[in-house]
Write a structure and sequence with these properties.
Blueprint: E1 3-6, E2 10-16, E3 31-37, H1 39-49, E4 55-61, H2 66-74, E5 77-84, E6 90-96, E7 102-107, H3 116-123, E8 131-134, H4 141-150, E9 154-157, H5 164-167, E10 174-180, H6 181-187, H7 195-205, E11 210-214, E12 220-224, E13 227-231, H8 244-257, H9 262-276, H10 289-295
Parallel strand pairs: 1-4, 1-8, 2-6, 4-5, 8-9, 9-10, 10-11
Antiparallel strand pairs: 2-3, 6-7, 11-12, 12-13
Helix pairs in contact: 1-8, 3-4, 8-9
Amino acid sequence: MRILNFGSINLDYVYSVEHFVQPGETILADELQIFPGGKGLNQSIALARSGIPVFHAGMIGEGDDFLIELMKKAGVNTRYIRSSRESRTGNAVIQRDQSGNNCIILHGGANQRISREYIDEVLSDFSEKDFLLLQNEISNMAYLMEKAHERGMRIILNPSPMNEALRSCPLRYVNYFILNEIEIAQLLGGDEKREEEQIHEMLKRFPSSKIVLTLGKRGSLYAEEGMDYRQDIYPAKVMDTTAAGDSFTGYFVSGIWKGYSAKESMDLASKAASLAVASAGAEPSIPKIEELEAAFPSS
């Protein structure tokens, strides 16, 4: 039983600002920092730092091999990563305000060069009972889901960013959805409902799936047929929320892979997210399992 994360690899340009820029406004940034990022890279590193083996597949631009080395150093198996001559590495422009909140603009770059041939090549090494972790920052998502399902892989989807292309994917094949308030509202058609109603509406549409809904400071919800559970946050002084969701996702998947119950996996993920928000940057803020165990000795 193995985990393949077929996902994005980015460079993040993080601008520290007093407030998010408004239409027609020009503001000065207090600081610019450049970090490795991409939801795919972040989640693979979270999985590796949680202490489990993970394979990453994805594309970078030529000359950015240091990103591969960084992932290797974190413990990620990078044998399936490829370089593109046609596109630069994907990147994100991130505004981070004084409260640690962020807003993000993505440019896909090499992440949008994922071909069907490349997908077939990678998936040929995986089979039934293996996990496939996906976000929505790469191309050919529908094909990837179809082929993974044909091979009997269990699909975990973090539908971010949510867009029309993702709606056309075979979402009925998804075993686990991990999504936030905005993404679930968009997926359900923009209905403004309470989170408990939203998560049960998701179960009606995808009765074979398990749903994880993250709610920021209000914690998170888990639901599957016949069961639901609310997880509180572990309070922390917020410095930067950029990789909190990716840390949560990585550690939740790690818990499921280790055979933990849904409740135990949600608790583990919440602890990881609380450590992530207390540090700056995306990849640098993702905690190691040793750090989590030191911060929460009863874990």
